[in-house]
Amino acid sequence: MEPNPVLPSLGQEPELLKTVLNKEGFRFTSQRQKILDLFQSSALGHHLSAEEIQRQLLDQGEKISFSTIYRALHVMVRLDLLQELELAEGRKYYELNTPCMDQHHHLVCVHCGAVQEFDEATMTQVGQSESTARGFSLLNCTFTVYGICPSCQSLLS
Amino acid sequence: MEPNPVLPSLGQEPELLKTVLNKEGFRFTSQRQKILDLFQSSALGHHLSAEEIQRQLLDQGEKISFSTIYRALHVMVRLDLLQELELAEGRKYYELNTPCMDQHHHLVCVHCGAVQEFDEATMTQVGQSESTARGFSLLNCTFTVYGICPSCQSLLS
DNA sequence: GCTTTATTGAAAATCATTTTCGCTATTCAT
DNA sequence: ATGAATAGCGAAAATGATTTTCAATAAAGC
Ligand SMILES: [Mn+2]
Ligand SMILES: [Mn+2]
Ligand SMILES: [Zn+2]
Ligand SMILES: [Zn+2]
User: Fold this and answer.
1) pTM of the complete model
2) A100-157 has which fold?
């Protein structure tokens, strides 16, 4: 559960989140700051769903409604602070956004839901070349590998 | 709208779908055959949602309920006849399954929803090596590139 | 400070998908 | 073929994550 030391500390200081929000006509609120803080303080490589965000904030004494959580997530995705992921069925996950060049990808255990991250420069290149080859302007690309993790393999065998 | 000439003609003859179903304890029904037929007769590279399946069947005079469509889709995914895709928000798409080695990937226009397919052997290799390196048993991997297609670019500029 | 209006929380709405249940149709043994 | 056992069907209700509504609140900017 260490704070992420690698990423630029956007929102680490309240100043910055407010600046980014106001630049686009959004308002700074304590709820949005708390949600961003949660991402900044959660373990590197951890992905949060709306439900987990609400539970964790509640654990630290902050009661925030789902409407507010979902609205905050959408705003932060639009501002490129967060990235939305479709790792598992039924719900979306969010993580701090990493600059396009350092994009990472995911290996998901379909049995227990464990997620591992990996970098692969090749991916971004392929995504880039495929999209330009067809005249698309690239927004982002996701590479997700589904399998069964070692511990689930031993449980199932 | 040509029938797909490349894939093995599973279900092209009623015999085969029945065989595959019965082998796993499922029953052959006319609804399941009609749904599979729809995939076989739709254009290569076309992806169908449950709603589109119902509409297209209705257009050809076959009324099938959503419960039946969803159940048939799940069965056929379990039997490896179909593959489930998460191309766009909010709904799932299905397509005839291609053998693992010939897996293809998708380029999606986030504005109009247009989908293009591309092959990229590299992907499967990376998925394979990443999963074995971490002790995962690989099930499948998806590479999806999001962008804006040429015609939407000109509309928006 | 004061005005404007974006944001909030609670509750209701949405909407793709799943489940329930009584009836029908397929399978398989006779 | 015939019949028993039961998987699958359709209609309608339920589910569950996400979105919207709306009255009250609180940022932003002058
Ligand atoms: Mn990640
Ligand atoms: Mn495809
Ligand atoms: Zn696992
Ligand atoms: Zn487009």
Assistant:
1) 0.88
2) Dna Ligase; domain 1 (3.30.1490)
